[in-house]
Amino acid sequence: MLFPSTTLRRRLANSNPATLNLFAVSAAFATYFCMYAFRKPFAAATYDGLSWEFLGASLDLKTALVISQIVGYAASKFVGIKVCSEARRDERPWLLVGLIAAAEAALLLFAIVPQSWKPAALLLNGLPLGMVWGLVVQYLEGRRTSEFLLAGLSCSFILSSGVVKDVGRALMFPAAEGPASWFAWLPPVSEFWMPAVTGAIFLPLFLLSVWLLNHLPEPTAADVAERTKRAPMDAASRAQFLRRFFPGIVLLLIAYFFLTAFRDFRDNYMVDVLNEMGDSYAESGASLSRMELAVALVVLATMASLSLVHDNQRGLLAVFAVMIAGVGMLGGATYLRQVGVLSGFWWMTLLGMGSYLAYVPYNSLLFDRLLASTRVTGTAVFAIYVADAAGYVGSILTQLLKDLAWGGNSRLSFLTNLSYTVCGVAALSLAGSCYYFLRRSKPQRHVQQVANYPSLPTAVGMELDPEA
Fold this sequence. Notes:
It is a single chain. With 468 residues, this protein is mainly alpha-helical. It has a single domain, classed as Up-down Bundle (Growth Hormone, Chain: A). Helices cover 69% and strands 2% of the residues. It contains 20 helices and two strands. Strands 1-2 form a two-stranded antiparallel ribbon. Strand 1 and strand 2 (57-60) form a beta hairpin. The relative contact order is 0.14.
């Protein structure tokens, strides 16, 4: 199934830009959307009354499951620094399918092993999943429409998180009406079998999406002229990149450390926090999907609008401005909830919008613009995975601190305090990094001859020097 159709690939290469962009964003969106069916359904269950004992410490079982999966996911990011940065085009589809197959096998283990071993099963589940993003991004980066394509891809993990949780809830608690009726013909699934069943439901669509994505043509010569050539990075080129931009990268990592911790805490405990505020899942139905759809639409519109900025220096500044505004929204929305202006539902929605406006560029637009503005040849995936490795360390520490150091605090109280902390620290770090990288960006040189032929493909084996 993964072998491409030469007819389809040829038609796409000769299609108009609108058709090609729609195909690219749809295939990438569907691929990563389906990945979440193997990662997040377990978070739809509460695992009430269950705990996990480890080295004399007692953790809430859900906390242990969340931490275990994040540990695996974080380890995957460290592995992905090498694997995804060096992956060739012909290796990507097979890697994608293999990673998802391993994740589904771990979910089957999660269903059948004793309770004390279930966190280990979710650790194995997270271990392959962290590399899927980088492999998908490599199909989209380095194009003149990369902002639009990557914004559409980023909306997949915003929207899919709510949808797959709704599917998981519907499997556990089928009903006669509404979304929960989709699986009414099935007997109710236990909270431990639910993640594996959810993954199996989405597996055929995932395979089809990868097959379609693998037909996407390479960037054209005009894309390379405007956004620089994208190529795998070996160990030497990765080390050179870090040395060259070390202060700015450190500031970006500090902000992302806190942003990832916040984003994961909100995402994993959204159901629990809403319950604490009196907005129970049973009463609000598919509220998570509606909430995340609103977040996705706002983020998509904002990120896609950045493609209107063709100058790479101004584009980089625009990306940082959006990110700083996003972290500011976290503190503002939290204050408005505390004074009674916002309901719990809209507070959670605005927290999602703010955090994703700051978080999403790290996974796509920020590093794509950074490479283009500094005229560095390489792949944005490397920088993305360095950031992710640091970010998920922050997520793990946050989960542990909540239960071990501030176990007496409710999740609602913890999320409130975390909102203010992330707002302050991330805003300062992002502002400093913005100043650093703008001073090191280079004026964009327009290659008029190439721009006149936007559909001209780069010759096989030929590297276009944008500085020539």
